[in-house]
Amino acid sequence: MQPLFAQHPLSLGVLVASFLIWRVMEASVDISTFKRLRAGAQRQDKGSHVVLLCLIVFGLLFGMLLALKVPATAITSAPDIFFWLGIVLMYAGIALRLYAIKVLGRFFTTSVAVAPEQTVIETGPYRLIRHPSYTGILITLLGLGLSLTNNWLSLLAIMGCVLIGFSYRIRVEEHVLQEHLGQRYREYMRRTKRLIPFVL
Q1: What fold characterizes domain 4-191?
Q2: Looking at residue 113, what DSSP letter applies?
Q3: DSSP string covering 127-179
Q4: CB 87: neighbour CB atoms within 10 A?
Q5: pLDDT tens profile 92-125
Q6: Is 121:104 a contact under the CB 8 Å cutoff?
């Protein structure tokens, strides 16, 4: 079964517009991060940003290929509802990411970097999870995968690749944060989950 966007021009327009809004937002975040890194934050990325981006792109491309090659796992029950659910999830993820960035303020970067005066932030979404901006990306990609592929196997492949990327990224980031913020960050880790409140 073809995804809804392949059957209706309006759906295609909404999907493309939503994707572009997400990418423009991410580009603006990257620009502000670049300025912040130049201002003195020390970068300790270990290639995790590139690894994550590559796995996201690979996951989306592989997911689309699976949707074409394995139609048996297509979403056949109310596919239009799942398409629009995907769009809603995309915007929900964008909103969560922007909120997390705002709460973290001048300490936020897209690279693993720690400012000399950085502290542990425990307000807003950071009360429950340590990486809410990553949760926002995961929700956005879940929605994009749902709207783009209309296929359960594709969605599983996309999210699997993305979770592998974030697993490495978070491991690198938390190692750096523990080194710089010490016992207070380790205590914060014991009280919170990484991505999903009370679960993961």
Answers
A1: Four Helix Bundle (Hemerythrin (Met), subunit A) (1.20.120)
A2: E
A3: GTBS-HHHHHHHHHHHHHHHHHH-BHHHHHHHHHHHHHHHHHHHHHHHHHHHH
A4: 19
A5: 999 999 999 999 988 888 777 777 778 899 999 9
A6: yes
